[in-house]
Backbone:
C-alpha cells in the first residue's frame, strides 16, 4: 500500500509547470483576487486541470481578502474587511519555510487548495501565509491584504511569493519542474531564488523560466527603489542586479524579462506594444481566454448539453452546435439568464429594472483608463437615444487608495439620480462586483460595453465571458476585441476606428462617446426591438467566438509554445493532445 506521504512525493515529482500569481480567482468563495488578473489565473488553472496539465500553482493567502464593497446612501464606495474562515476550504501543510526579511527570520506556512478538472485530475494551489505562530505581529500582517500598497509591504509580499514560493516547492519535493511561469512581474523575485539555487548561472535560470506580462502602460509595472530592496533582502540581492532589473530602480518586468526563456503578452496588439516598450526583448503573444464551462450560464449550458454527442466537450466543434440551436430556444434561454440577473438586481437595488428593456452592462475594476463614465459625456444626447428603450447596469470596485476611481463611482450614482429625475432612465450601480456578480451580468445583459482608452487594455476578459453567453460586445477596438471583431464583425460592434486607420492614435473622449450614441441610435436599439431574428443570429455569431477566446485553447498554446510540453515524450494525455 502506498502511504499518503509517498503518494504526495510521487505526485510532486511528476509535476512540470509551476504557475506563480499574486492573485488567483480559484473559487468565487475565496476572496483573494481583485480583478481580471486573478480571474484569468483561476480560469487558467481550471482549464489546465481539465486538460490534465502537470501543473502546480503558488499564490499568497490573504486572510482578510480583497475588500467587500458597499455603496453608501450618497453613492460613495465604502470598503469593508471580509470575514471568512478558510481553514475548512484549505488544508494546512506540515511544511514551514523560513525567509530573511530585513535581516530577521520570518516563518512562512502554506495552505493547499485543490482545483479538480473534468476527468478528476487535480491541480494544487499553495497559498503562503505569514500569520502563523512564531512570527511577530508586524510579520504576521505581511499576508493579510491583497495589494495593500505601501512600497515596503508590496516588496515583502512579492518576496514571499517569489522567493518563498520557490523555496516551498523545493521543500515539498517538486524536483522535476521544467518551467516556472511568472504570471505578471509580481513573481519576478523567484528568479533571484533560482539564481542562488543554480549557483548564479543566469542561463540555467532562463532555461527554466517564462514570463507573461499583462500591462501595456509603463506606469503599470512594479518598480522599487534599490535602497528599499536592499533593506528588505540585504545580501540576498545579487551583484548583477542592475544589469538584470534596471539602472535607476528595480523594475520587476525588466527582471522577469532578463531571466526568462520565453516572454509573452496577452493579445496580438499587446504583444506588439510590449515589444516596443522593451526593446531588445523577444516578446510573443498568447491571447487570453476564459473558462467556457465556468462562464457559460446554466440555461445555455443546458441547451448545448441537449445535443448528446460523445465529443470531448468544449472543443472548437462544441461551439458548432450553436448553429443548430433553434431561434426561440436561444432567445428563451437568454431571457432566463436575464431574469436571473434582474431578480438579483431587484433584491439588491432600489432601481427596479425591466425585463423587456434593452440592458447595457458595464462592470470591471474602476480605474481611470477604462473610462467608466464615457457614455455619460453628453447626458442630453444619451437621454434622447435611450429614453424608455435602454437601461444601464454598472458595477466594479475601485482600489481603496484610488481616489480617482472612487470619484467615478460617485459620479455614476449621481448620473443615476439625474437620469431618473429628468428622463425616467434607469441606471443601477450594483455593489461588490465579484466573480458571482460578474457571471450574472455577463450572462444576463443584452449588450456589454467596453470603452477603455485605446491600447491600454492588454486583453480584457469580461467581453469574452459575455460573448460566450451570446451577449453582444459594444467595444473600442483594443485588446482581445481587435482580434474578436476581425474574426467575426457580426459578434458585436466596434466603437471608433480600427488600429492603423486615421485617428487610431488619438483618444478623443467626445468623439468616441458620440460614436457610441450613433451606434446605439442607428444599430443597437432598432435591431433589438425591430429585428429580433437578426439579433438572435448575432448572438450565435457571438457565442461561436467562444471557440477561440477560451482558456482551453489558451492553455494548449502555452503548453506548445511556452511550456514545451508537446515535446516532452514522457508526457502524454488523450485529453491534452
Ligand atoms: C472577468 C472579471 C474581471 C475582468 O474584467 P475586464 O473587462 O477584463 O476588466 C474583473 N473582475 C471580475 C470579478 C471578473 O469576473
Residues:
Amino acid at each position: 500500500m502506498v502511504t499518503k506521504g509517498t503518494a504526495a512525493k510521487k505526485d510532486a515529482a511528476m509535476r512540470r509547470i509551476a504557475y506563480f500569481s499574486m492573485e488567483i480567482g480559484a473559487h468565487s468563495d475565496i476572496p483573494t483576487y481583485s480583478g481580471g488578473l486573478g480571474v484569468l489565473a483561476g480560469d487558467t488553472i481550471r482549464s489546465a486541470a481539465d486538460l490534465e496539465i502537470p501543473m502546480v500553482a503558488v499564490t499568497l493567502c490573504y486572510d482578510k481578502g480583497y475588500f467587500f464593497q458597499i455603496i453608501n446612501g450618497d453613492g460613495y464606495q465604502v470598503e469593508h474587511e471580509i470575514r471568512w474562515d478558510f481553514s475548512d476550504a484549505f488544508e494546512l501543510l506540515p511544511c514551514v519555510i523560513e525567509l530573511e526579511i530585513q535581516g530577521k527570520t520570518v516563518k512562512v506556512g502554506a495552505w493547499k487548495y485543490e482545483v479538480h478538472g473534468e476527468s478528476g485530475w487535480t491541480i494544487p494551489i499553495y497559498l503562503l501565509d505569514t500569520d502563523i505562530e512564531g512570527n511577530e505581529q508586524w510579520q504576521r500582517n505581511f499576508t493579510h491584504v491583497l495589494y495593500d500598497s505601501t512600497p515596503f509591504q508590496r516588496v515583502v509580499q512579492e518576496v514571499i511569493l517569489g522567493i518563498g514560493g520557490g523555496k516551498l516547492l523545493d521543500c515539498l519535493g517538486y524536483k522535476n519542474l521544467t518551467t516556472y511561469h511568472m504570471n505578471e512581474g509580481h513573481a519576478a523575485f523567484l528568479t533571484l531564488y533560482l539564481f542562488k539555487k543554480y549557483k548564479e548561472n543566469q542561463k540555467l535560470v532562463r532555461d527554466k523560466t517564462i514570463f507573461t506580462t499583462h500591462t501595456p502602460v509603463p506606469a503599470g509595472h512594479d518598480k522599487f527603489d534599490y535602497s528599499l530592496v536592499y533593506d528588505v533582502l540585504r545580501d540576498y540581492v545579487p551583484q548583477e542586479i542592475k544589469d538584470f532589473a534596471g539602472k535607476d530602480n528595480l523594475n520587476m518586468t525588466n527582471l522577469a524579462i532578463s531571466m526568462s526563456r520565453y516572454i509573452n503578452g496577452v493579445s496580438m496588439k499587446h504583444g506588439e506594444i510590449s515589444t516596443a516598450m522593451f526593446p531588445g526583448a523577444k516578446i510573443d503573444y498568447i491571447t487570453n481566454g476564459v473558462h467556457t464551462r465556468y462562464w457559460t450560464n446554466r440555461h445555455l449550458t443546458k441547451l448545448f448539453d441537449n445535443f448528446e454527442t460523445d465529443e470531448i466537450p468544449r472543443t472548437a466543434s462544441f461551439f458548432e452546435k450553436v448553429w443548430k440551436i433553434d431561434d426561440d430556444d436561444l432567445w428563451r434561454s437568454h431571457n432566463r439568464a436575464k431574469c436571473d440577473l434582474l431578480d438579483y438586481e431587484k433584491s439588491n437595488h432600489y432601481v427596479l429594472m425591466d425585463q423587456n428593456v434593452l440592458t447595457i452592462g458595464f462592470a470591471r475594476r474602476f480605474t481611470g483608463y477604462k473610462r467608466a463614465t464615457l457614455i455619460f459625456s453628453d447626458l442630453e444626447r444619451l437621454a434622447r437615444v435611450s429614453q424608455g428603450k435602454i437601461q444601464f447596469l454598472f458595477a466594479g470596485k475601485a482600489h481603496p487608495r484610488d481616489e480617482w476611481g472612487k470619484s467615478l463611482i460617485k459620479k455614476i450614482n449621481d448620473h443615476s439620480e439625474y437620469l431618473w429625475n429628468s428622463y425616467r432612465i434607469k441606471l443601477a450601480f450594483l455593489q461588490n462586483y465579484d466573480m458571482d456578480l460578474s457571471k450574472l451580468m455577463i450572462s444576463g445583459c443584452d449588450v456589454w460595453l467596453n470603452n477603455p482608452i485605446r491600447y491600454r487594455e492588454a486583453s480584457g476578459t469580461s467581453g469574452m465571458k459575455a460573448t460566450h453567453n451570446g451577449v453582444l460586445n459594444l467595444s473600442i477596438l483594443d485588446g482581445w476585441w481587435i482580434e474578436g471583431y476581425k474574426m467575426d464583425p457580426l459578434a458585436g460592434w466596434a466603437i471608433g476606428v480600427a488600429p492603423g486607420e486615421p485617428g487610431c492614435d488619438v483618444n478623443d473622449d467626445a468623439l468616441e462617446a458620440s460614436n457610441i450614441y450613433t451606434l446605439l441610435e442607428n444599430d443597437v436599439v432598432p435591431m433589438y426591438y425591430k429585428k429580433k431574428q437578426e439579433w438572435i443570429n448575432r448572438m450565435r455569431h457571438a457565442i461561436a467566438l467562444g471557440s477561440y477566446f477560451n482558456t482551453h485553447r489558451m492553455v494548449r498554446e502555452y503548453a506548445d509554445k511556452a511550456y514545451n510540453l508537446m515535446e516532452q515524450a514522457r508526457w502524454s494525455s488523450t485529453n491534452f493532445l
Notes: The CA atoms of residues 139 and 478 lie 42 Å apart. Residues 327-348 form the longest helix (22 residues).
